[in-house]
Design brief:
This protein is mostly helical and 126 residues long. It contains three helices and two strands; from the N terminus they run αβαβα. Helices cover 52% and strands 5% of the residues. The protein has a two-stranded antiparallel ribbon with strand order 1-2. Helix 1 runs antiparallel to helix 3. The longest helix is centred in the last third of the chain and has 34 residues. It starts with 5 loop residues before the first helix and ends with a helix. About 4% of the residues have low confidence.
Length: 126
């Protein structure tokens, strides 16, 4: 098992939050589009659960197993939500709440990275 690299984890969460903010903004932009279905990104916990420990080549004759960066799955939300008269399922209040949630998560992510960086700098300066 590899040690947890906080900076890599925070970077991956920031990328996930960026994708989620883009999806939420797309939902808001298509609020009046007839037939549009609300989209969302898989939860970040699911992204972490899919992460595996990569194999390393220890000999030059080993076959490379370099994987591609994990993409975040964007999927349409449940179809059992009530549809608007236009046939779409976007509820602006829900999307604005998601947008606020993404903003708070970005702020928390940045604060944790800043604190960890400050602790790291304090230990290396001593």
């Amino acid at each position: 098992m590899q040690p947890v690299n906080l900076f890599a984890l925070a970077s991956q969460q920031a990328q996930w939050l960026s994708v989620r903010q883009t999806v939420v903004a797309g939902n808001i932009a298509n609020a009046n589009t007839p037939g549009y279905g609300t989209m969302d990104v898989q939860p970040f916990e699911a992204v972490l659960n899919q992460k595996t420990v990569p194999m390393r080549a220890t000999h030059p004759m080993h076959v490379s197993t370099a994987g591609t960066p994990a993409a975040f799955t964007v999927r349409q939300e449940n179809q059992d939500k009530p549809l608007m008269p236009s046939g779409n399922s976007v509820v602006l209040e829900t999307e604005l709440m998601k947008s606020g949630e993404v903003h708070r998560s970005f702020e928390l992510n940045a604060a944790i990275v800043k604190s960890f960086h400050r602790m790291l700098m304090m230990t290396t300066r001593s």
